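Model: Ready when you are.
Researcher: Fold this.
Model:
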Amino acid sequence: MNKTQKFSLIALNSKYIHSNLAVRYIKAYLKKYNIDVNILEFSINDSFDNIIKHIYLSKSSVLGFSCYIWNREMIMKLGPSLKKIMPDTKIVLGGPEISYDMKSTMEENPWIDFIIYGEGEETFYEFANSYLSGDKNYENINGLAYRQDNRIYINKPRKPIYDLDTIPFPYDDCDYPENKIIYYETSRGCPFQCQYCLSSVDPGVRYFSLDRVFQDIDVLISNNIKQVKLVDRTFNCNKERSIKIMEYILSKKGSTNFHFEISAKLIDPEFLALIKKAPKGLFQFEIGVQSTNNDTLKAITRNESFDDIKDNIAELINMGNCHIHLDLIAGLPFEDIKSFIKSFNDVFSLKPHMLQLGFLKLLRGSKLRLDAEKYGIVYNQHPPYEVLSTKHLSYDDILLLKAVEELVEIYNNSGRFSKSLNYLIKNHYGDPFKFFQDLYTFYAELNVLDRPIKVTEHYELLYKFVEKNIGISTTFNELLKYDFFVSIGGNMPQCIKRFNNSKIKNWVTQFLKNEEAITKYMPEFKNMDIRQKLKFIRFEIFEGDIFDASSSKSQKKIVLYIKNPMDNKDGRTLPFDIVEFKSLASM
């Protein structure tokens, strides 16, 4: 490569913890042809000036931007300024958000020199090769749009890469973004035709070979990656293949967590039997339910009813060894507020670890965007093109659902209120949505929705909400206290009633000094002195059986919360009845 020419690929991720897979694929693909590429990775939350500065200091001859709904607007702001300070630098855009309406996009934005549309690896290589040769012979490069002699040319589309193994593994030993999610794929495409998704535009699924996937998994696990999130649209669309991959991961006995997006309809006894063998935390699954309204599902060509899939999902959740994430989409055809509330309650009743209440986005190129007028869907003209209203759902309804979404994130998805939330909905609300709606009304009355709120304040607000609308029972107080004790620790809100913990401090100290007790209950603390042990333990007194809210037992319990000193991961609790004090202290 000509040393005076430098290629830089720019990734603007939606959050700091995310990383960009596309630019790494292109870098790896060009590397096998001895073309060096630099990656500059930012977040859309970084300052405009900081991004401009670092791109400028790269002194690049070619800048390639990976465009998505979350970063399109920022790229459109960066481009003109970059062209002014780097006039000789060529700017190339690629990605799903730029692969449609290319002619008008280039006409409206004269700073764009090239657009790579569709799959990018081969196209970017051919473009780079032509650029470096200096012949500027771009007309035969499929998948490329370019500006030349004040004219815009759009070449014919490129065929998909059918032998995916020709694309190198996207990470090398020095390129695992620290403290970020690592994205990976074992296939491209999707067998389904969901009308809101771009995967429906290119039918069919292509696969990396199993040998290649196993080789990649070896590398990921051996590098102790914390989490690998697969971007396969439907990981289990080929059940036998998906089982072989998960069996291989199981056989490696690693600590890496693997996140899969799967279809609940394709879950069967063989799939469940394998998942049952997995140690807790190895796998997590995301399942798009989207709606439980059959007319809605038919309109978006999802050929599965909620009745078809709910038992499979329930069985997966009840195993208790995998984190389960379920999705709903508000704003789909034929779903009014009453129907959406039913969808919400249907899915919430399954008790997933996370329920994501999303809002329809009319993506460029999606079939539902083309049919927006047919369904009366009004959406924002700027990315992410989110629904504003439909024939069936008003903007007032959307605002209510957005408020409920925020409270679901705080009280359900965070996992910080699991016992108190479950108790309130089960014993005082039968309707989960009504609970969140009433809680939203309470928040609105206090004018706290539009200001930052500390986590601890949400405990106080829930307490006050229950005090006003239901009345504080001992059971609720103890469950809320337990949720705070396990999730937060530290200074508990004053509204929560507590016992005098100083009375058991000596007992806890004696217990932690007793080697027989340590061996029996917390062997990981052997060979530690008392000061070291106390760094990883906190304790609290509770009234009644907080592990069984339906129990009528009224005795007090001491609960020790223990963090593993080796990895400091989520802790575990160790309960003792008060009546056990004397025997425990004398062990």
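Researcher: Now this one.
Model:
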Amino acid sequence: MKKYLLALVFLTASAVGFEQEAFPVIPLPNSIETKTGRFVFTNCTQLHYNITDTDVRNAVMPLIEKLRLVAGITLYQKPKCKTPSMVEIAIDKSIVNDEGYVLSVSPQKILLKAKTTAGIFYGAQTLLQLLPDAIEKGSFQKNISWSIPCVVIKDEPRFSYRGIMLDVARHYMPMAFLKKLIDLLAMQKMNRLHLHLTDSQGWRFECKKYPKLTEIGAYRKGTPLNTTYDYNSRPNDTLYGGYYTQEQLKELVRYASAHFITIVPEIEMPAHSMSALASYPELACLDSNGNAFPYPQQIQNEYCTKDETFTFLDNVLSEVMDVFPSKYIHIAGDEASKENWAHCRFDQQRMKEEGLKNVDELQSYFIKRIEKFVNSRGRSVIGWDEILQGGLAPNATVMSWTGIEGGITAAEQHHNVIMTPAEYCYFNFYQSGSPGEPVAFCCMLTLPKVYSYDPIPDVLKPDERRYVLGTQGNLWTEYVPTYQNAEYMIFPRAVALAEVGWTNTALKQYEGFRTRLIKYLKRLDDHHVNYSRHLFEIKLTTSLNEEKQVTASLAGVDKEYAIRYTLDGTGPTDRSPVYAQPVIIEKNATMTAAVLQDGIVLAQLKKDFRLHKAVGKAAVLATPPDEKYNTGGNNAWVNGCLGNDEQFSDDEWLGWNGKEFNGTIDFGNATVTSSLQTRFFHKPNSWIWAAKKVTAQVSDDGKIFRTVAEKEVPVPSNDGAVPFSMSWQPVTARYMRIIAGPVEKIPAGNPGAGNGAWLFVDEMVVN
């Protein structure tokens, strides 16, 4: 029956000649019938609804207020006109879905019906998107016809849970930004804002019973980027952090509720708890001698499972539930190493008393005990999919992030699931391979990949699919220190996910979405959103032409859009050359390519070219790179094109695991050389280390080599691309061999200690 209804909706849209690209609404409604004519809002437009139903009036308040402020049109007064037009709002209990609505627009009347005020609110959001985008500017606009097309829309969301998670623990975000984010999510019909309020790097929730949580745990040593757990070096260090008072959060809850968004609070447990343990160290695990486990073992330290901990957490959660009326309370449950539990005498005693076989079962005991308390307050818990370990708590909802497998397992056990797999939903991943992107956690998650996601796994049986409540995008902020960075990482990927959560799969089509998104971006501009400009992923490849010149080829953009480019590092304009064929790089250059439309940058790519003596020459690697990090080909190290400063996974970086770089260049004839410049990538948290030493050798016959230079590489102090250079007295030879020795074993105290390090090498610039 469900498949039949989807097909019927699709046929209805097609039968009336509907083109979704021309319909400026995101997320795309599920049934649209276009009519002739337009409805024009004027001061002769009357708003009609049951005068006693203030909730209905509040639901259409965004439409009322924006028309008054921006268009100068007052809807809720009775107009003194002979032939007034009308906007009628009505509750209709015959509509099945609680968030569904029916919108009928004719030249003289708009009728908006819904089962609940939530549906009325979403119908009003559709009306706002049908109006000119200037409705979002926030100030009076002259000489605009405030009209909308005549249509009949029957709409409802595919999923009941459509959310975004913002991590405010790693970096405190200002309250004004949280309200702005609520405004933006409401525009795209999302209904959950999940706030990650606590983590090892910061405690953001004011707990009146335990004031040290904010006196100590809300502030760490002043290091805005990356992570630190140093709460003990005060008062001499600059402090970094902040927290929200309960009154601030109650006001935020009221603000969100007016936008039909529920705030889901998260209090981390049992791991990611250093901010709490720094505040109340008596809750930490102790070794056999009664001492706290030393850093860095405490990086993911868990609360000890003694009774005092549960009293503490029950009290904290009681205050959380007094502030947040959300049905769901998120208790995390993720990434618990449980190493300390295996050695702490209190935890071992707990396992003995409860008859638990292992620490996985101890985690299950922990979550079940917390769930029982939360249930006693009439609420339900959500946990990341690790709460499946050792047995799932009876009424828990699983948020599946490590993949889809956790969600599948939970749904098969008839537990509710929110799908948020990192591969599709982690907005802390890079969204473009373009140089200049802000530092991200890792990996790549492009806009089209977000849009391609289907939250219901194919393997689920029909009766199991109903347990998938919806989907959520997550922004972890280890590398996102400001709200401007957060906006960049969230938008427009959140807009794509909004359509994933709302629109039936049969109607989704990326090209149509992208066309509508281009128009929608003007609304984000009106709200001064610092969104990413990567609607297309411009691809650049290099090659040599017959004259052995380096050429740059551009691709990845639909034919109807022009790519414009420059070679001097400046941003392209409408007057810049249009790419039509491979561009010859005749000297050192910075190519910037972009897609422009109506003054909006839809995509941009920047690449540096450095021509040198090894470019285009025969080159051989003694050991090929790892196949996962060889997308640019074995000759990427001498093709004249530099790698991305922030991302080791682009086409120009070559990677080896636990092996050295060893490459030989055949110049073809005797050539004078005297210097080498290159770059290594350094990111110890990802097991990537710069080389320890670089050796340059030359040969006349390609068999016997002599060393002309050798230089140690200092351990870098920062992550990213690390420049390296060395020089020698000019020498003439036909062959050159370059050897870059890796860090054989990752040093103790670092992620992956004892394993072979990854070595990533950029262009070897030989002169």
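Researcher: Key takeaway?
Model: The chain has four domains: 2-155, 161-503, 539-609, 618-766.
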